[in-house]
Amino acid sequence: MRTRQILCPTDFSETASHALKYAIEMANLYHVGLRLVHVIDQPVGLDNYQILTVTPDELSEIMETAAAEQMHKLLAELKKDLSVESVIRHGVAHEQILKEAEAAEVGMIVIASHGRTGLSHFLHTNVAEAVANGAKCPVLVVK
């Protein structure tokens, strides 16, 4: 753990930004690099499930371009003395995060939890929980 990168998944939310602060602190403490990953979900349609006005490939390209722009902004805000790599993946979030953790042989994952409870927890996929249960390395879940 102390010699390998820390993986920090981000959806560019405020909660993910909070987790990133912990990841940076851990990376500085152990003098290791930081690896940011953003997962683009497979496009299905608009949020209200209306008919797509663009092809799925076009929508995927638009989503990737937007994610890349957000990732560049995030990287620009980070301290320059920290070694940071970024990756954008496509697919199911927890599966891609776990694949990235294994492929990069990270020492730790620092991930945000949106803190859903009750019916909301039941209806939404809990990415942080799935990552914590499936990871082969330590996972820090930040609220």
UniProtKB/TrEMBL annotation:
* InterPro entries documented for this protein: Rossmann-like_a/b/a_fold, Universal_stress_UspA, UspA
According to the lineage, what is the superkingdom? Answer: Bacteria
Q: Where is the UspA domain?
A: 4-143
Q: Name one Pfam family in it.
A: Usp
- Signal peptide stretch: none
What SUPFAM superfamilies would the database entry show? Adenine nucleotide alpha hydrolases-like
Q: Which family does it belong to?
A: Belongs to the universal stress protein A family.
Question: Which protein, by its recorded name, is this?
Answer: Universal stress protein
- Organism field: Shewanella youngdeokensis
